[in-house]
Write a structure and sequence with these properties.
Belongs to the MIP/aquaporin (TC 1.A.8) family. It is found in: Cell membrane. GO terms for molecular function: glycerol channel activity; urea transmembrane transporter activity; water channel activity. This protein has 248 residues and is an all-alpha fold. It has 9 helices and no strands.
Length: 248
Amino acid sequence: MGSASFMKKAQALLRIRNQLARECLAELLSVFVLMLINLGGAAQMVTTSKTKGDYLSSYLAGALAIMVAVHTGGGVSGAHLNPAYSFAVCLLEQFPWWKFPIYVAVQTLGSFIAAAAVYVLYYDAIWHYSNGTLTTSGPRETASIFATYPADYVSIANGFLDQVISTGMLILGVLAIMDTRNKPVPKGLEPVAVALLVLAIEISMGSNCGCPMNPARDFGPRLFTYVAGWGAEVFRWVEGRGQGGGWQ
């Protein structure tokens, strides 16, 4: 009886009643889950020289991460996960503009924290694979674990077009899946449908730039690599670097 009473008091004390705070925490956790699995798949591929993972396994990790992330916070924050999606629903007047910068900040923070968690998880592997040097190019680069980089042949203009088309396809697909006036996805299977959409885009449009399609997914981990020791080179367009894993 005493234990049950203590638990009820603890739950009442920890319960967050402010709706915006609840949404921000849900979005933060959703993005963290998304990026932890997504970047983990890339880290496993890179640090094992593709012996325990390849681009397909990395893409699968990213797509399945979407499914888990939507289930994690979809009922509270809507699990936007992506500033591009938040921007789109603001344009469609389905989301208030005043929340947009808050969601973007939370999404970026969630990505940054997830990158830090993956770095800690794969710390030994990263340093072993890189021979003790954190580089952004060359045969032992590890920056592509955390952020996507264009293939050698991709120009800035082509890279920009690549992201416009792939991100546009993502937003169009998600809006179609979530539109109840359209041919509906069976209730509860929306996260699976979005995950399959992401996988389809990744395996059809991933070779140019690695399919980031998400400003928070790219900027948060890229900022982490900057402060963690990879340096300002992570923000430069440099030839000779591979693509990291997946969207998202």
